[in-house]
Specification:
It is a single chain. Helix content is 79%, strand content 0%. It contains nine helices and no strands. The radius of gyration is 28 Å and the shape is globular. The chain starts with a helix and ends with a helix. The protein is mostly helical. Helix 3 packs across helix 8 and helix 5 runs parallel beside helix 8.
Length: 220
């Protein structure tokens, strides 16, 4: 009886192993994640610095709010052309700074200050609307600040990424005296900068049109 039970158990184990094979541990390539990160690190850093600026701006406004700061952050009802010129001048100034840092020898270590400053301004505005107007202020900031953030920040992140690459290449050629196997073509960077400048002009027009249209409908 015992031998019969033993044989039955052995046969059962054999059949079980045939039906259910041991799980094979598939080794994942750890380099895949590292390669993905290294290829997109400038974009990731820009987003992280923007988030840090957003948090810093809201924190500073909450602790340092005053009448002067409120007047600066309060958006006045301006006409389309005046608002367009203001937006275009600010957008182009930020873009020009990113270009200058791109052609600067040591521009790449501080290039991420640009998305941080944009996030800082947006954070202060959102905190201003929320603290002074509550839930209505949140809705207003989503309608008035979101177009600026989504469109302008996207173009800036791409320009910052290219400026980071350009500045680092200049640093490697001039300081480290490294041989560049690929031809360093300045015309490619110039064409992309011109394309980004055109996109920023379009963003300024779109954001101005949205803000002007919403100002006529929404009041706070």
């Amino acid at each position: 009886m015992d031998s019969f039970e033993l044989k039955g158990e052995e046969e059962f184990n054999k059949d079980f192993k045939k039906e259910f094979k041991p799980l094979e541990i598939i080794k994942t390539d750890r380099k895949d994640f590292y390669t993905l990160f290294s290829e997109n690190k400038t974009y990731i850093y820009s987003i992280l610095f923007y988030i840090a600026g957003l948090l810093s701006g809201s924190f500073i406004y909450r602790n340092c709010q005053n009448e002067v700061l409120n007047k600066v952050l309060n958006s006045s009802n301006e006409e389309f052309m005046q608002l367009l010129l203001n937006n275009l001048s600010i957008y182009m100034l930020v873009f020009a700074v990113s270009v200058l840092l791109g052609v600067c020898l040591v521009g790449f270590p501080i290039i991420n200050a640009i998305p941080y400053i944009i996030g800082f301004e947006a954070g202060m505005k959102i905190a201003y609307y929320y603290i002074n107007y509550g839930v209505k202020g949140i809705g207003y900031s989503l309608l008035m600040v979101a177009p600026y953030v989504c469109l302008f920040l996207t173009v800036v992140i791409y320009s910052v990424s290219m400026s980071f690459d350009l500045s680092k290449r200049i640093y490697q050629i001039t300081v480290k005296k490294s041989d560049m196997s690929e031809e360093f073509n300045y015309k490619t960077y110039l064409k992309r900068y011109l394309a980004y400048a055109g996109l920023i002009a379009i963003v300024a027009v779109v954001n101005t049109a949205v803000c002007t249209a919403l100002n006529g409908i929404i009041s706070i």
